[in-house]
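REQUEST ID: PR-0412
SUBMITTED BY: lab tech R.K.
PRIORITY: routine
TASK: structure prediction, single protein chain
INPUT:
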Amino acid sequence: MANSNNSNKKLVPEAMSALDKFKYEVASEVGVNLKDGYNGDISAKDAGKIGGNMVRKMIQQVENNMANK
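STATUS: complete
OUTPUT:
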């Protein structure tokens, strides 16, 4: 059954290339080798490392921005 409310939809489509670049940077930092195109062969553990670290860095950046206001 297809879900019409895709939670992966980008709220700011213009940021898509920056998010991809960020994903590759974080993957490199945590030692996960992502290649251009399909990466469905990486483990869930490695994918979780990338996503978790992306979220952690984004939260840190927002907190820093809030503290500097």
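NOTES: Residues 43-69 form one domain.
REVIEWED BY: pending
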